[in-house]
Design a protein that fits this description.
Blueprint: H1 6-21, E1 41-43, H2 44-64, H3 68-93, H4 96-105, E2 115-117, H5 135-150, H6 159-173, H7 199-212, H8 232-245, H9 260-263, H10 273-287, E3 288-289, E4 292-293, H11 330-341, H12 345-358, E5 360-361, E6 367-368, E7 372-375, H13 380-385, E8 392-395, H14 401-414, H15 420-423, E9 440-446, H16 449-457, E10 463-464, E11 471-474, H17 476-483, E12 488-489, E13 494-495, H18 504-507, E14 510-513, E15 516-520, H19 536-553, E16 561-566, H20 578-589, E17 591-592, E18 595-600, H21 602-605, E19 611-613, E20 618-619, E21 624-628, H22 630-642, H23 693-696, H24 735-740, H25 760-764, H26 770-786, H27 789-798, H28 802-816, H29 832-840, H30 853-867, H31 870-879, H32 887-895, E22 900-903, E23 911-913, H33 919-929, H34 934-953, E24 963-965, H35 966-981, H36 985-993, H37 997-1009, E25 1013-1017, E26 1023-1027, H38 1044-1053, H39 1060-1070, H40 1078-1087, E27 1089-1094, E28 1097-1100, H41 1103-1106, H42 1112-1122, H43 1128-1146, E29 1154-1158, H44 1159-1177, H45 1191-1198, H46 1212-1215, H47 1225-1236
Parallel strand pairs: 9-10, 9-16, 9-18, 11-15, 14-19, 22-24, 27-29
Antiparallel strand pairs: 1-2, 3-4, 5-6, 7-8, 12-13, 14-15, 17-18, 20-21, 22-23, 25-26, 27-28
Membrane topology: Lipid-anchor
Protein name: Phosphorylase b kinase regulatory subunit
Domain Phosphorylase b kinase regulatory subunit alpha/beta C-terminal: 981-1175
Length: 1251
Amino acid sequence: MRSRSNSGVRLDYYQRIVHRLILAHQEPVTGLFPASNVNSHAWIRDNVYCILAVWGLSMAYKKIADQDEDRAKCYELEQSCVKLMRGLLMAMMNQKDKVEKFKMTQSPCDSLHAKYSSKNGLPVVGDNEWGHLQIDAVSLYLLILAQMTASGLQIVFTLDEVSFIQNLVFYIESAYSIPDYGIWERGDKTNHGEPELNASSIGMAKAALEAMNELDLFGARGGPASVIHVLADEAHKCQAVLQSMLPRESNSKELDSGLLCVIGFPAFAVDDAQLIHNTKDAILSRLQGKYGCKRFLRDGYRTPKEDPSRLYYERWELRMFENIECEWPLFFCYLILFHAFQNDKRSVQEYADRLEKIMVRSEDGTLLVPESYAVRQDLVGQEYQKPGSQIREVVGRCPFLWGQSLFILGRLLQEGFLAVGELDPLNRRLGAQKKPDVVVQVVIIAEDNEIRDKLAEHDLHVQTIAEVAPIEVQPARVLSHLYTYLGRNRKLGLSGRKSRDVGILSTSKLYSLKDRIFAFTPQFADLSRFYIASDNELMIDILKGEINFLKSAWDLLGRPLVTLVLKRIHLDQDKIPLAMIQTMRKLKSGYINGTRVMLGSLKDFLNTSAITDLSFLGSTEDGYPDRLHSDVQTYLDEHLLRSFSNRSTMNLRGGQLRPRTLRRRMSCKGAIKKTRSINVDSDNLGMEGPAPLTERRLSSVVPPPWLQPNKQSHVSVFATTPEEGPSTPSLHLGNELVIRENIYPVDPHGSNRTTIDRRSEFVRQHEITVPKILIQRHRAETNFADTEVEELIAMLRETENLEEQGDILQFLVDTQGLDFNTAGLGFKNKSDDNASAAAGAGGMLEEGRVVTVRDLLKGLYEKACQQKLWGLVRHTAGMLGKRVEDLAKAVTDLLVRQKQVTVGMPPNNEHTITAPLPEGELRQLIHDAYGDDESTSMLTQELMVYLAMFIRTEPQLFHEMLRLRVGLIIQVMAKELSRTLNCDGEAASEHLLNLSPFEMKNLLYHILSGKEFAVSSVARGNLSIVSCKSSRVSKKSQIGLGDPEGEDALLATIDDRQGQWLRRRRLDGALNRVPRDFYSRVWTVLEKCQGLAIEGRVLQQSLTQEMTPGELKFALEVETALNQIPQPEYRQLVVEALMVLTLVTEHNMVPSLGGIIYVEHLVHKANQLFLEDQRKVQGDATLCCAKIKDGKEQQQAASGMLLCGGAAYICQHLYDSAPSGSYGTMTYLSRAVALVLDCVPKHGEMECAIS
């Protein structure tokens, strides 16, 4: 026998260790590893980690296999890996029904089990008896399965198994929105069994999805049927959410050492080198100890203070675990691998030495990795005083196979038996390297020759759909339908992909199917979806955003290809809109918004684009893999004919008729307006106490134009004609409700004059007295109600004014319902000629066909879309119950980036959304929040979609914001419009609801970014929002500007700077913006006092016992208390007061702040001090609050009304003071703190730390 080389001898040593420590425990029947000698349960995660050492050793043998016995050893080790991976696969396939159910429900009860019996692979605990939903475990399995397959192991044997694995991909693809129990099986760290979104699970899922994409599970011997397909957009969503969370692990765990497996081996899920560095540093600085790393802060597991008799912790007892958490040597093994992959030999050596010191030697001298180290019971006191000083003892299993396996891998790398590339055959470790710039290819196709010729006039040469043949162009919904066939398997009862969503990454590829090639237009261009799709400017804006997104997100082979079809429906009065021409010219120039683009034709790009094979559409299960599945064949045949053929839109019946006399125009006007609920004028922003819906609604106080003395039609800030006037659709109030509706929203303190008073010049312009308005209003009501339905429908036939049709239909919906049949009505007193004429013009009598009010509304909606009457569009969309297709997705996009969303007007109708909801529930919630106000509930859905667009493309806009309060944002938008246009609240809401979707998004952007803007009027009474230096922000909000006379008169006469701090506080308050590190600093204040009271909510000191300073749950507690304050500017002053308190604690001026601190007292005290100073210096406030009071004014003040209209009894001028300076708010707040808190010394020298 030849003598073995040194390396061979050393490998034999490792082979003995692996055999004795790991393989000896492998069950011969199932191939699984039991948890220990006494516990036969096999966890998926631990099993996969255990086998990694065996896999690594087999690859090391493969390299030196010069003798037969080495090749035999290599094969034996490889087959142990295959045995284990197949054992887990069989256990999971036994639960195939769960995989199928989970795709629909995503409920923890339907999840795959986290552990199985190692004896027979069957379940060992019930669905509800364990935190089974652990997406990271299934993801880890798929990731290692992909890596092992790529290294040459054959683990999957049949096409049925391939289908099952494809369904496991669907199981993890929405990991970014599924709260689970995570790597430590705990969920929330109090261990009460509440799952939460975990960054470690999302990262592992992202890695698995990328590793599985286009992987052939049969290795080199497979064909198209054994390839796994992943939609790139799903992996990218996981990445985006992961990046927004790191270095946080979840809501309750601000940091977790488990993230080491996401930023390094085995997942390599983060491709931003800086973020990897920050996360690793955070873990080392806060969790690393002498004996390893803590899992997370305040982890009570196996500490001497833990009560072993119960599973969960009391919330208050978490504080006891601080500084005595167990330390796990396992994480040193991860760090060795992390640095080995970074090729940082010094750090590898450092951690190897540290690990060696804490390993346990067995009797035969083998080094074992223990599970964890705990502080000894008798040393707990000293450890509390001086963390890290006491010796610890081993608790838990020894050897801990998960750690032992990683330790052996590390040793094989250190001794050069393995190269890092062998442990990562898919090259995931290279993800963080810089990539070359992406060039986005754009193809524009004309629907027909006519449009092609129109484009040619502008020197833009494109092909038509017919000319690009044989390439076929289809809308995204066709691709989404084809993907539902992926992973279907009758034998296993698996139904394929459930999600209907195909993102821009998926439609930017070409697809081949047998000998055909398909190009798909992006999902956002699918016109049948929602009304915002009929706003050309918005579509162009979205296109630019998507091109920009492709630049950063594209990581597939080839270049992305965006295909757009220009159709008739895009034309504006038979011309191609200017905005489109300009954009195409920009695309032609080669750059758009900083992204490189190429405009060309499809055939030019065939060789440079990514092409995916849709081979899974074959009838493999029936034994004809080359023949298309019969359903697919029929679907394609039907669709290919229809998809881009011209569909004419339906005309509103009667729309072509000339109006007869105006005799019967009665009082249908305003039916829509009555449904409004945006309250701009009331000082405390629609927050009039616990009033029912009726009082929240601001109805039209200005009488309908046809009742006005001077007969001017449709009063508006811009004198528009009735046809074009801004129409705001309103919600259907039941009849009885209308009469009782309260025209004067009164606030709880009775603090302001009635709304009517504040309608200032608007009403005065028409010299109408108040009583007159009331009489006319009710007369309008009764006229409307008594009108016969017959007559109304006759009117509907006559009028061409869409606004009027809207009002009539609104009334019909209220009285008769959506399904009321109008066929044949309204022809009573007319001659037969007329009747036939009406029918001919598309009237309501159609060969006995039923024409319901709903059908009429649909026609009106389509017309309004064409004519761009956005207010009417929003209203009819709401009445028809249309919903934004991507609503659930948009809300999820916000929630998964740790932003909660509230809808409804604060404070009484605000609903908070904290977890992703299905589409239907979400719509119902929004509908309930706004009562009957359809327009505002539509606008809410629209704004949520825009917010989601912004958070994807410009996440920095949302820094330091935890909750997005859509109702408040709407009020700020209206308030800002009212200020800029110098009109009253009702006109402002009207203008707001008539903004085009593009301008609405623009306005929202200006408000989020705090940029100034102006409003310019464009043709047809539409407004356009332009960035500028002037003081105006577009935001629909109820933030209290006070009364038009007082405040606006001031604003008009004084220069621009007046009011800017008030406005800034108002915006920050409405957006819930807080200073950096605000919440963790409030935590330090709370630690030193018994509680903080804000608007009746007390934040107890006990919160610091349960939560750590950086914990998201704590931030949400503080946020909830602040959200009790209805007035945004007042909220901001409370935030400033809290900041002053944090300065007091941070500079350790006093050991304790005493009892419960009432934060509002500080603000009011500061206001008092401010007014005293104003009197001394005769400042602006002497005109209002600092006046020497006489009887009349005292009476007013007692009734809760400030002259200057300041919110919450605080002078408007204090709101408008800068924070710094001798008359700044911080100065007054600091003085207030010194006066109000007993603990601050009253005299003597103190260093002033507030600069």
